[in-house]
Inverse folding.
């Protein structure tokens, strides 16, 4: 068992890579690339499940860790590990892999080999981002996660792929350059890329505050664009409407949000605390702005993009509220958003496959023709709008209530208004797609309902929404260990320092009894 | 000594019914769908009855109230936030459960006949069971967040059932409207819960009550804010001003749904919630008076609209809003038991009236316009008889159920000093209007000559008649227990109404006589207008054209909200945020940045082809850049940069 524990993270990284090589070598016959990709995705999902099964709750720090020298000069280590923060994000990435393959099953008909090679490469990159504890290693995976995405958007765009890819490139690659500079600056100062080492060094105040401000800002900018945080969301709508479904559903959110928690707040708690008021304001604006724009979109991909902006902003709010409950809720909400958005993407992708348009007005009355699609879409929409008993509600409640009790009543009330708008745009979408009389398009085009393969993906996701809504205690205890590492020196050092209480990175005070 | 009561079965059974019919119903034979759908509420009713009997000493062991059942695994447990799955049975939830499962079961039976020929029979019943699940969760919940599951859940069931005929645009619209308007109320509920967490550190009702009991001097202030937030939630769910607008549209749903959800049970959830959290309201006289004013205003307002509606279901819908107003009025004068009493009798007679209306609609082929009915008493004798009972009950005639409960509320209002007199007077006028519009409905639908083109063709099946008769009996004797005994029973849950100096038995009698008097007056007026001189209503409408148009168009409230909220929101989102901010400002900024990055864009053209070789070149270039970064002494560069930055900041 120990041998597995020691090598599990490496396996998780290597399996998609091996799958990619296999796809590249195998002939493009029948559905062979699809099957190889599906098998790879299922195996890697299975491997990720090993992590929560053997995660030890009481044990602080990183588990399943490996720390070996990789390149001597500069001193880059192959340092990987997971804690409560990244544990479930790795599993989520694993879960969404087979979902992505199924979503691409019939949607991708040309150049399938390239598609699945890049898809699996992207998979490795995302795993890498979540488990890397060496900043250079992390940066390599971060960049690697952008490249297949940009290429696939350009290749498989629905209308104007290259333009969307360029936009994606400009928005995400350019901020990565300052990130790299910042990482290298830290290395130049310390001779280390190691996350844990740097965390302790920075916490001990070994750096001048001036440069550190810029370094932290460079980190934040790269992450904020990737989330995205308002007003840096310019790439999102185009990417959502052009990217293949399998990639669009992983492009936003978790990578950036995780990186904020781990590397922005984790390394620069003081600077993050200083930036928090601005981020809270931007997050609340993003919640309402995204919801308002989602209300008036005529294209369902764009609607989903602005809805995502709204929901991701809520998570940002939870992260930068710096409350214990809010942070745990934010991490939980990243998972929820991944599951719900994944399901919605898959369903809209199926509609697009069948009717070849994303114009909402062209639809109508689909529910009587495709009842199973309608049922699942309604379930996912209800989860999306935070119906209690389904998963999003738990995360939303944790974030909003802790913002209210621990951060700011005004911002919390404004953010809660998003609850009303969320129901409005989502139910309106449901109505325009599925209810009412059949439109010209839906009446004229015969279309078959979800197949077994698709149901086999969507029903488990629907059940997961219910389970995550009713039994968050399966996930939250391990997440909590990542928010507040028990016995972590770093936190104690910070609490002993000269920080004003109001910007303490994680305070469980100020919540509840008052 | 508490014997186990198995409270969790009460919601679990309907949920099982929902799952079975929802997942498999399409393939199951119809009789099996029916069996599952009926067994679920019947069994739940059985569990409630068992609990009730064992409380009154008939069961195997005597239990005492409140009876608590908590799931060993908590729902949410993070940091200081701790939320359990806990169910509480006390006098209040017991009464409510009896109404919900009892009336619910009757309406399930009725639906078997009413929906027999509908497509999606299984879907209908799975939704109906789902509703019962959420409603019982709402009632049993021991904390506000668990109640919120039921609260939003009944809204979901309502959304699904209003939109049951989803191919109809109006039905889909109405369902959506109901959900969104309710969400506005839920926003208030949520903020209320945040405030409870901030000030009490808990959402458990009993703990809140304990903390308040420990601080009897704590009045108003934040408690007022909390109570008003909860009230906003209640006005959404219970269709009070200013959020009542969804309920009339909700009549798009099948009629049994209107009876169960939009008359007897779900819409009373707001009243129930106020009664459940009454300790908060009791500590805020201001919030209580707002509740009373909202209730009285809604009661009168909705009653005036009901005067001129021609759709039989809409008359009943506005009447429901008006009657819910009475219940709020009762809560507002701290007469919670009178409110719950009225909630119960209203559930009987309003469910009866809706089901009877459904029976009429069913019999004459879907017609809902009162102007096209008339003379139906001969053809539908049972329906006519039970409607008569329902009309007498809602109008408040002795000894029908509505008399006792409405009278209890009016009396409680009257004895509350000067402002109470005003509330009482509004209630009295509403009673007059109620009697008038209900007898108007009665005359138009059942008496006079038939104005219908289609003859009644459906015979009413027994499955529809039996519930009608049972509800008819309940509408007669449902109030006989009397407010005295009812209030005494509920006192441990909702407290006793404070007795004022004005109260006396003769006064109580006078108030009762007054109420019956205006009911008679209303009947007499309706008799003149709709029997003796049927040309009168049109004349009166012609005499007061503006007033009539305002009433017929429901005070243009929907139009007002459309023009002041919906349209500006959409316009602002589309043109100001979407057009100006997103496209012009943010898009322009990105375009400018993009212009400066044109160089990289030109390079980008190369690998957009998806050519892997050029991609490899890119990676190599990237690696070279990395090495460059490592070689250059960035620390010195950055240090000097930051020195410049600080130099500037220093001045």
């Amino acid at each position: 068992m120990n041998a597995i524990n020691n090598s599990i993270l490496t396996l998780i990284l290597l399996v998609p890579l091996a799958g990619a090589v296999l796809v590249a070598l195998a002939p493009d016959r029948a559905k062979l690339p699809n099957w190889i990709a599906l098998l790879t995705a299922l195996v890697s999902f299975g491997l990720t499940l090993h992590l929560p099964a053997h995660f030890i709750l009481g044990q602080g720090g990183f588990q399943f860790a490996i720390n070996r020298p990789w390149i001597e000069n500069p001193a880059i280590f192959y340092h990987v590990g997971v804690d409560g923060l990244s544990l479930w994000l790795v599993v989520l990435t694993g879960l969404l892999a087979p979902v992505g393959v199924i979503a691409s099953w019939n949607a991708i008909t040309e150049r399938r080999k390239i598609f699945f090679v890049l898809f699996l490469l992207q998979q490795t990159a995302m795993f890498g981002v979540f488990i890397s504890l060496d900043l250079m290693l992390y940066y390599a995976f971060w960049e690697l996660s952008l490249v297949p995405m940009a290429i696939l958007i350009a290749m498989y765009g629905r209308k104007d792929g290259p333009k969307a890819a360029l936009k994606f490139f400009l928005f995400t690659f350019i901020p990565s350059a300052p990130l790299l500079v910042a990482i290298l600056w830290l290395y130049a100062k310390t001779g280390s890329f190691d996350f844990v080492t740097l965390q302790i060094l920075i916490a001990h105040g070994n750096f001048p505050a001036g440069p550190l401000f810029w370094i932290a800002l460079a980190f934040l900018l790269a992450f904020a664009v990737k989330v995205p945080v308002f007003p840096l969301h310019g790439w999102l709508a185009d990417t959502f409407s052009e990217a293949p479904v399998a990639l669009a559903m992983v492009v936003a959110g978790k990578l950036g949000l995780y990186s904020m928690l781990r590397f922005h707040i984790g390394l620069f708690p003081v600077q993050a605390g200083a930036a928090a008021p601005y981020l809270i304001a931007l997050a609340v604006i993003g919640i309402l702005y995204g919801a308002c724009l989602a209300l008036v979109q005529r294209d369902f991909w764009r609607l989903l993009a602005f809805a995502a902006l709204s929901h991701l902003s809520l998570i940002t709010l939870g992260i930068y509220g710096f409350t214990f409950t809010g942070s745990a809720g934010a991490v939980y909400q990243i998972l929820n958003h991944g599951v719900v958005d994944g399901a919605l993407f898959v369903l809209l992708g199926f509609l697009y496959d069948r009717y070849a348009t994303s114009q909402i007005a062209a639809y109508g009355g689909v529910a009587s023709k495709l009842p199973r699609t309608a049922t699942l879409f309604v379930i996912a929409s209800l989860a999306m709008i935070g119906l209690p008993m389904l998963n999003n509600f738990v995360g939303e409640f944790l974030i909003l209530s802790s913002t209210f009790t621990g951060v700011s009543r005004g911002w919390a009330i404004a953010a809660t208004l998003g609850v009303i708008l969320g129901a409005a745009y989502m139910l309106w979408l449901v109505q325009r797609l599925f209810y009412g009389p059949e439109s010209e398009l839906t009446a004229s085009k015969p279309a078959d309902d979800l197949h077994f393969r698709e149901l086999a993906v969507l029903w488990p996701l629907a059940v997961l929404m219910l389970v995550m809504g009713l039994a968050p205690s399966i996930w939250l205890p391990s997440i909590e260990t990542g928010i507040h590492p028990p016995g972590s020196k770093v936190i104690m050092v910070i609490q002993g320092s000269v920080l004003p209480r109001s910007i303490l990175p994680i305070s469980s005070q100020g919540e509840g009894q008052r | 000594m508490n014997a186990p009561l198995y409270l969790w079965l009460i919601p679990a059974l309907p949920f099982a019914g929902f799952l079975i019919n929802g997942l498999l119903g399409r393939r199951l034979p119809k009789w099996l769908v029916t069996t599952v759908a009926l067994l679920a509420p019947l069994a739940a009713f059985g569990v409630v009855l068992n609990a009730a009997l064992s409380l009154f000493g008939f069961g195997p062991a005597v239990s005492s109230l409140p009876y608590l059942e908590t799931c060993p695994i908590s729902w949410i447990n993070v940091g200081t936030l701790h939320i359990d799955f806990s169910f509480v049975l006390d006098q209040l939830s017991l009464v409510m459960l009896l109404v919900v499962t009892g009336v619910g079961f009757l309406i399930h039976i009725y639906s078997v006949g009413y929906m027999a020929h509908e497509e999606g029979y299984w879907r209908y019943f799975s939704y109906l069971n789902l509703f019962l699940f959420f409603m019982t969760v709402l009632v049993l919940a021991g904390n506000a967040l668990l109640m919120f599951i039921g609260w939003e859940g009944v809204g979901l069931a309502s959304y699904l059932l209003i939109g049951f005929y989803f191919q109809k645009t109006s039905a889909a619209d109405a369902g959506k409207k109901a959900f969104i308007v309710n969400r506005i109320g839920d926003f208030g509920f949520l903020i209320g819960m945040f405030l409870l967490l901030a000030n009490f550190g808990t959402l458990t009702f009993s703990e809140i009550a304990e903390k308040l009991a420990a601080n009897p001097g704590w009045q108003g202030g934040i408690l007022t804010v909390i109570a008003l937030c909860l009230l906003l939630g209640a006005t959404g769910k219970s269709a009070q001003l200013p959020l009542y607008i969804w309920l009339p549209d909700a009549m798009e749903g099948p009629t049994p749904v209107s009876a169960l959800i939009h008359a007897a049970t779900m819409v009373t959830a707001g009243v129930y919630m106020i009664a459940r959290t009454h300790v908060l309201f009791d500590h805020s006289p201001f919030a209580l008076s707002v509740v009373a004013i909202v209730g009285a205003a809604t009661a009168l307002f909705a009653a005036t609209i009901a005067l001129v509606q021609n759709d039989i279901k809409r008359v009943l819908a506005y009447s429901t809003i008006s009657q819910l107003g009475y219940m709020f009025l009762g809560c507002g004068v701290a007469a919670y038991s009178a409110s719950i009493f009225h909630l119960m009798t209203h559930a009987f007679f309003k469910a009866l009236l809706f089901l009877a209306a459904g029976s009429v609609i069913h019999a004459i082929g879907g017609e809902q316009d009162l102007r096209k009915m008339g003379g139906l008493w001969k053809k539908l004798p049972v329906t006519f008889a039970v409607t008569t009972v329902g009309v007498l009950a809602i109008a408040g005639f002795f000894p029908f159920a509505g008399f006792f409960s409405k009278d209890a509320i009016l009396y409680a209002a009257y004895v509350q000093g000067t402002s109470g007199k005003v509330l009482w007077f509004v209630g009295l006028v509403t009673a007059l209007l109620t009697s008038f519009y209900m007898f108007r409905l009665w005359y138009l639908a059942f008496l006079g000559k038939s104005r219908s083109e289609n003859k009644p063709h459906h015979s009413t099946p027994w499955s529809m008649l039996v519930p009608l008769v049972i509800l008819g009996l309940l509408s007669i004797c449902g109030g006989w227990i009397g407010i005295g005994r009812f209030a005494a029973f509920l006192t441990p849950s909702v407290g006793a109404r404070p007795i004022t100096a004005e109260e006396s038995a003769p006064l109580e009698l006078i108030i009762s006589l007054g109420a019956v008097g205006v009911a008679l007056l209303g009947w007499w007026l309706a008799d003149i207008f709709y029997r003796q001189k049927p040309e009168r209503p049109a004349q009166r409408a012609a005499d007061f054209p503006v007033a009539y148009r305002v009433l017929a168009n429901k005070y243009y409230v929907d139009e007002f909200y459309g023009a002041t909220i919906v349209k500006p929101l959409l316009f602002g989102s589309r043109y100001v945020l979407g057009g100006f901010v997103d496209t012009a400002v943010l898009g322009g900024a990105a375009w400018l940045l993009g212009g400066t990055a044109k160089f990289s864009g030109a390079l980008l053209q190369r690998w957009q082809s998806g050519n892997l070789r050029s991609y490899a070149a890119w990676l190599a270039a990237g690696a070279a850049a990395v090495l460059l970064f490592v070689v250059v002494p960035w620390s010195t560069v950055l240090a000097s940069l930051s020195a410049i930055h600080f130099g500037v900041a220093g001045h």
About this structure: Residues 2-500 of chain A form one domain. Chain A has a mean pLDDT of 88. The radius of gyration of chain A is 22 Å.
